[in-house]
Design goal:
Largest sheet: 7 strands, parallel
Number of domains: 1
Mean pLDDT: 86
Number of helices: 9
Shape: globular
Helix content: 40-55%
Low-confidence stretches: 193-198, 263-272
Structural class: alpha/beta
Strand order of the largest sheet: 3-2-1-4-5-6-9
CATH superfamily: NAD(P)-binding Rossmann-like Domain
């Protein structure tokens, strides 16, 4: 791929499936060239082949594990070499299903590196050129879970809350720069996310799920309106987030206790 192409350039992490793959398809259709980052090279190549059937975007495959320091630094260096992205989509992430003190600490460490260090480093790598040229867009995928806490998902919820707070802080710093940032906060999304965690969807009403393409459509529409926090789709999620700050702590504890009992009874963590 030539970085001197007149087409805008988008780099997407976690691009091999789900929301990341939908961002790749949508931005390619909008005329962007792509740099696709994920661990699974075979999935990235399949996605690139699929996109090429619909449009003539130039696509670079960049296999990398962003929880690994050296590989994360390499992606950040690639961003700096581009001379200025139009879009950075920090979408890589995963969850686990054990209570914190029972989980393998290595998995929690990897999650924190992926959700926090990778987002921070890649944003830092992109923003210098974005601010210099007076434009660009960053989407950091958080979650509705970032507004709450949930049994068996303490680090997941906490790191997603960090993404929301970090993105808001960037927005304050970037006022007047022409650079647009968004914290994308989807709820339950039909993707590989829960499959990888080996969590059944049976205990969650179908009406709470959104297809990944709807999440991406709503995100890009909100980005065009310069909306800082995007909660795609369902009014239920928007209502939950709106009332959360006003709920007394004792009620939150009681809800958490009830959710915990359900986790113990069913063996299925409750997660967004």
């Amino acid at each position: 791929m030539s970085d001197n192409s007149p087409r805008p350039l988008a780099l997407i992490t976690g691009a091999s499936s789900g929301i990341g793959a939908e961002f790749a398809r949508s931005l390619a259709k909008r005329g962007c060239d792509l740099i696709l980052v994920a661990r699974r090279e075979d999935k990235l190549r399949k996605l690139a082949d699929d996109i090429h059937q619909d449009c003539d975007a130039a696509i670079e495959i960049f296999p990398a594990d962003l929880a690994d320091d050296n590989q994360r630094h390499a992606v950040a260096d690639r961003i700096r070499q581009t001379g200025g992205l139009e879009y950075l989509v920090n979408n890589a992430g995963f969850g686990t299903k054990e209570r914190f003190w029972q989980a393998d600490f290595a998995s929690q460490d990897i999650m924190a590196r992926l959700h926090v260090l990778a987002v921070m480093e890649l944003c830092h790598a992109a923003l210098g050129d974005m601010v210099k040229k007076g434009g660009g867009n960053i989407i950091n995928t958080a979650s509705v879970a970032g507004f709450f806490q949930s049994p068996s998902n303490v680090v997941y919820c906490s790191t997603k809350a960090w993404i929301i707070s970090f993105t808001e802080g960037l927005a304050f710093e970037l006022v007047g720069s022409g650079v647009n940032v968004q914290a994308l906060c989807p709820g339950y999304t039909l993707s590989e996310f829960h499959d990888v965690m080996q969590i059944s969807r049976d205990g969650i009403p179908k009406s709470w799920w959104l297809p990944a393409n709807v999440v991406v459509h709503d995100s890009l529409a909100a980005l065009a309106r310069r909306k800082l926090v995007c909660v795609p789709g369902l009014w239920r999620y928007k209502l939950l987030i709106a009332i959360s700050p006003f709920l007394p702590r004792w009620l939150k504890y009681r809800v958490a206790a009830a959710r915990h009992k359900r986790v113990i009874k069913t063996g299925k963590p409750i997660m967004m």
